[in-house]
Specification:
With 465 residues, the protein is α/β, with parallel strands linked by helices. The protein folds into 3 domains: 76 residues, 3-Layer(aba) Sandwich (Udp-n-acetylmuramoylalanyl-d-glutamate--2,6- Diaminopimelate Ligase, Chain: A, domain 1); 212 residues, UDP-N-acetylmuramoyl-L-alanine:D-glutamate ligase, CATH 3.40.1190.10; 151 residues, Mur ligase, C-terminal domain (Protein-Tyrosine Phosphatase, Chain A, Alpha-Beta Complex). The strands form 5 sheets. Strands 10-9-8-11-7-12-13-14 form an 8-stranded mixed sheet, sandwiched between helices. Helix 3 runs parallel beside helix 5 and helix 4 crosses helix 12. The N and C termini lie far apart (63 Å). The model has no long low-confidence stretch (mean pLDDT 95).
Length: 465
C-alpha cells in the first residue's frame, strides 16, 4: 500500500503498532502510550523486517535508528492519529460512506446504543452497531475479545469496512473517553451524538474530573446534532463545551412515546430503573431526529432486549433472583442496587459480589464499598481483572473506612460466587457485578477464560433443592 507521510509517498506491505506483528517490508508506528512507550520497541520492529518507522520522537533521540541506513524514519506530531488515518485509508475510508451515531457517557452507553439500533432496525434501516458487548450487522453478531468500549483503529475501521460491504447505511457506535483522547475514532464524523451522564471514572487517564468532562466533550467537535440527557449527572458541566455549530437537544422524560413505554410492564421488567428510562429517552429523541415514526420507535423499544450482562437474570428453579450486571462505577453500582432495593420484598436479602479492576481508578474503590454497605445486606469482595496489582490491596481499598457490617473476603471469584449463591435463601437477590458480558479476566497480565453467568449457572445446577 502507498502512504503519504510528511509530503513524501512511500510503499509498504502492511503496518502495525505491535513490533511482534511486523514482517519484512512493513511500517512500524510508535507513540507514547499509557503503560508503554512504543518507541522502546522500534529496534525489535526493525529486526522483524520494518523498512519504515513513524514515531513522535526526533531521530536524534533515537541514535540506534540512525545507524540503520536501510530504514526510513518519519517524525509526526500525533502517532495515534496517524495510526487511525492509516487504518481508515487501508480500508477505503469506510467512515465516509456511513451515517454514524455516537453515544458517550460514563454509564448507560451500551443500553442506549442497543435501543437506537433496535429502533432503526425495526424502521427498516440497514443498521450496524459497535459497542462494549460486540458488533452486529445484517444478522451477524461479532464478539470483540477485549476489555475496551471503543475498539482500536485496526479493528474499528475493518468492522466499518465490512459493514459498508454488507450494504449498511447507519452505524451506532459506543464511544468511550479513552476512544476520544486516544484517537481511536480519529477521522469519524457523527450525524448525531448522545451523552448519557458524566461521573468520575478513569481519572488515572484523565487526571481529574474537570479534564474528564473536557475530554468527553471532544465528541462535540465532530458531531452535527448533540443530544444531552437533561437528568444525567454532569450534563450541566459538559454542556458548556457545546459549539455554535452543534444542534443541541436537551432530552427530558415528558415524551408521549416514552410515557407509553413506561407503562409497559414487560419492558420495565427487562429494563428496570430510572436510569433505563433516561437511556430510552435519548434513543427515542435520536431516532425521531433521524425521521423514524413514533409507531416504529415504540415497536423497536418494546421488542428490544437488554445487552448481554446488563441486569441479566440467571434462570434457576431455586427461587433465587440471581443477576449479572456490568456495573463497575460508583454511580452504576448505586443505580443497580437501588433498583433491587425497590424490587425486593420484605425479608429478601441483597447479596452483592464485586471487586475493582487493578491498575485503574483507585479513587473509586472506597466509594463503591460505601455504596454497597449502604444498600446491601451481605457483600462478598473478590477479584475483577486485577492485572498486575496485588488483589489483596485492591480488596483492602474497597473495604477501607467504616461500613455497616464486615465484608466477606474471597479473592477467588468462582468461590466468591459459589459462597454468595449458597448462602442465599428463597427470594434473595444475588448480584454479580463488574464483569457483565466479559468472557475473560486479566490476572497477572494474562487473559484467562471467565464468565460470571456460566459460573452462576454451574453453581445453581449443583445446589440441592
Amino acid at each position: 500500500m502507498k502512504l503519504k507521510i510528511n509530503d513524501q509517498t512511500i510503499s509498504v506491505n502492511d503496518f502495525s503498532t505491535d513490533s511482534r506483528r511486523i514482517k519484512k517490508g512493513d511500517l512500524f508506528i510508535a507513540y507514547k502510550g499509557v503503560n508503554y512507550d512504543l518507541h522502546d520497541f522500534i529496534l525489535d520492529a526493525i529486526r522483524n523486517g520494518a523498512k519504515v518507522v513513524v514515531g513522535e520522537r526526533s531521530l536524534d533521540s533515537l541514535p540506534e535508528v540512525e545507524k540503520k541506513p536501510n530504514v526510513q524514519y518519519f517524525q509526526v506530531k500525533d502517532g495515534r492519529g496517524f495510526w487511525a488515518e492509516t487504518c481508515a485509508k487501508k480500508y477505503g475510508n469506510p467512515q465516509k460512506k456511513l451515517k454514524i451515531i455516537g453515544v458517550t457517557g460514563t454509564d448507560g452507553k451500551t443500553t442506549t446504543c442497543t435501543l437506537i439500533y433496535e429502533i432503526l432496525k425495526t424502521a427498516g434501516k440497514k443498521v450496524g452497531i459497535i459497542s462494549t458487548v460486540g458488533a452486529g450487522y445484517k444478522g451477524k453478531n461479532i464478539f470483540i475479545d477485549s476489555h475496551t468500549t471503543t475498539p482500536s483503529p485496526d479493528i474499528l475501521f475493518k468492522l466499518l469496512k465490512d459493514m459498508v460491504d454488507a450494504g449498511t447505511e447507519y452505524v451506532v457506535l459506543e464511544v468511550s473517553s479513552h476512544g476520544l483522547v486516544q484517537k481511536r475514532i480519529h477521522g469519524i464524523n457523527f450525524i448525531a451524538c448522545a451523552v448519557t451522564n458524566v461521573t468520575p471514572e478513569h481519572l488515572d487517564i484523565h487526571g481529574n474530573y474537570k479534564s474528564l468532562v473536557k475530554d468527553k466533550a471532544l465528541i462535540f467537535k465532530v458531531s452535527d446534532a448533540v443530544f444531552l440527557n437533561k437528568n444525567g449527572i454532569g450534563i450541566g458541566r459538559i454542556k458548556k463545551f457545546i459549539s455554535r455549530t452543534n444542534k443541541l437537544f436537551e432530552v427530558g422524560q415528558k415524551d408521549k412515546v416514552l410515557r407509553k413505554i413506561a407503562g409497559n410492564s414487560d419492558f420495565k421488567g427487562r429494563f428496570p430503573g430510572e436510569y433505563n428510562m433516561q437511556n430510552t429517552a435519548l434513543a427515542i429523541s435520536i431516532a425521531r431526529h433521524l425521521g423514524v415514526s413514533d409507531e416504529d420507535i415504540y415497536r423497536g423499544v418494546i421488542q428490544a432486549n437488554p445487552p448481554e450482562g446488563r441486569f441479566q437474570y440467571v434462570p434457576n428453579k431455586k427461587g433465587l433472583n440471581v443477576i449479572v450486571d456490568f456495573a463497575h462505577t460508583e454511580n452504576a453500582l448505586k443505580s443497580v442496587l437501588n433498583v433491587v432495593w425497590n424490587k425486593r420484598k420484605k425479608r429478601e436479602k441483597i447479596i452483592a459480589v464485586f471487586g475493582c479492576a487493578g491498575e485503574r481508578d483507585r479513587q473509586k474503590r472506597h466509594a463503591m464499598g460505601k455504596v454497597a454497605s449502604e444498600l446491601c445486606d451481605i457483600v462478598v469482595l473478590t477479584l475483577e481483572d486485577p492485572r498486575s496489582e496485588d488483589p489483596q490491596k485492591i480488596i483492602a481499598d474497597i473495604a477501607s473506612g467504616s461500613h455497616k457490617f464486615p465484608f466477606i473476603i474471597e479473592p477467588d471469584r468462582k468461590k466468591a460466587i459459589e459462597k454468595a449463591i449458597n448462602m442465599a435463601e428463597k427470594g434473595d437477590w444475588v448480584l454479580m457485578l463488574g464483569k457483565g458480558h466479559e468472557r475473560s479476566m486479566n490476572i497477572s497480565g494474562e487473559e484467562l477464560p471467565w464468565s460470571d453467568f456460566v459460573v452462576a449457572q454451574e453453581t445453581l445446577s449443583q445446589m440441592r433443592c
